[in-house]
Amino acid sequence: MAPRDYDSSPVSDILGMKAIIDGLASDLQDMRNKKISAQDGLARAAIAKQIFNGVRLFIQAHAMIEKSQKPQGQSTQIEAQP
Question: Is residue 39 a contact partner of residue 45, using CB atoms and an 8 Å limit?
């Protein structure tokens, strides 16, 4: 098993990514066992793809916001000169 990425872990937990991945794995097994049609499996995969795309955008936006914030301790006020 690959090492866990602790930086993105809270985001994946909040967005329920484990449940989505487990669902995709279950759908694949159901398709193999002919419990659902290939068309149903493809539709579910397309929905999951859109969810993953949204997660990617969320993580990129979060990273962009973090980069744009000033480091703590810097004052944003202009100091008066004597």
Answer: no
